[in-house]
Amino acid sequence: MQKHILLTGASGTLGRVVAPRLSAAGYRLRLSDVKPFPDPIPEGASFVQADLADGAAVSGIVAGADAIIHFGGISAEQPFRPVIEANILGLTHIFEAARQGGQRVVFASSNHAIGYYERGRTLDTRDPMRPDGYYGLSKAYGELLGRMMFDKHGLESVHVRIGSCLPAPTEARHLSTWLSHDDLERLLIAAIEAPETGHAIVWGVSANAASWWGEDDAARIGYVPQDDASRFGLLPEPGDAIAQRFQGGAFASDGYSRDD
């Protein structure tokens, strides 16, 4: 039977990338965002406009779905209050609705949950989180929320620490952090179709030769990346010394006030 997938944040950059791909892969989609969907609705899909801060609205869009891909929320560094409303309150509504309905949640976490590790250090998902701002902090919260929901309620979730998901890498940092659109599709389908996931954390990254990110739960869900940023050769290194020092790049340098 065709799986019915709720995709939140459908009108955002990555939502617009994955919606037609998942539709073409045979999934029946319910798209949702606080903003209208700007593209033609994929065949067999529907769109429901909803604010994630509205718990009742979230319960409504979750009902009847087989799984949730949660891309909704703010995707850039902003002051604390808007991040709370979009990324923490909204995410909690998603998980609470999924707990009641029993749907697996595939959560768009971020490399910015670990952005204050220095470049060149290879991490695994057991390393402590070191968010590089309020945005990264909200993603750390999401991973911990998923952990609690699994330990307390048995709710499965896959937390994808997305790197730099672009058609092609454009700067030196991306040689380590790039996630191709094809690999993003592979990762999401693996997260949906895995027989069991538990609470899984997976680096949202392609098979880059220069990757800073190692052991994770990719094998548990069957994700095998196929692309590699190294084929693009040398790329420019933008940003100040702080951006070039930390894995989070410009997010790490935004508002940085230490005098070292």
Task: Explain how this protein is built.
A 7-stranded parallel sheet has the order 3-2-1-4-5-6-9, with helices on both faces. A two-stranded parallel ribbon has the order 7-8. Helix 3 (80-101) packs parallel to helix 4. It is α/β, with parallel strands linked by helices and 260 residues long. It is globular. The chain has helices at 13-24, 55-62, 80-101, 134-153, 174-177, 181-193, 218-221, 241-245, 250-253, and strands at 4-8, 28-33, 46-49, 67-70, 104-110, 157-162, 164-165, 178-179, 199-204. It has a single domain, classed as 3-Layer(aba) Sandwich (Rossmann fold), CATH 3.40.50. It is built from 9 helices and 9 strands.
In short:
The chain has 260 residues and is of the alpha/beta class. Helices cover 35% and strands 16% of the residues. It has helices at residues 13-24, 55-62, 80-101, 134-153, 174-177, 181-193, 218-221, 241-245, 250-253, and strands spanning 4-8, 28-33, 46-49, 67-70, 104-110, 157-162, 164-165, 178-179, 199-204.
Helix content: 25-40%
Major β-sheet strand ordering? 3-2-1-4-5-6-9
Based on CA atoms alone, the radius of gyration comes out at 18 Å
Global outline? globular
CATH superfamily: NAD(P)-binding Rossmann-like Domain
Compute the number of helices. Answer: 9
**CATH third-tier fold name:** Rossmann fold
The mean pLDDT is: 96
Order of helices and strands: EHEEHEHEHEEHEHEHHH
CATH architecture: 3-Layer(aba) Sandwich
Strand content: 15-25%
How would you classify the helix and strand content by structural class?
alpha/beta
Number of domains: 1
Which CATH class is shown? Alpha Beta
The major pleated sheet works out as: 7 strands, parallel
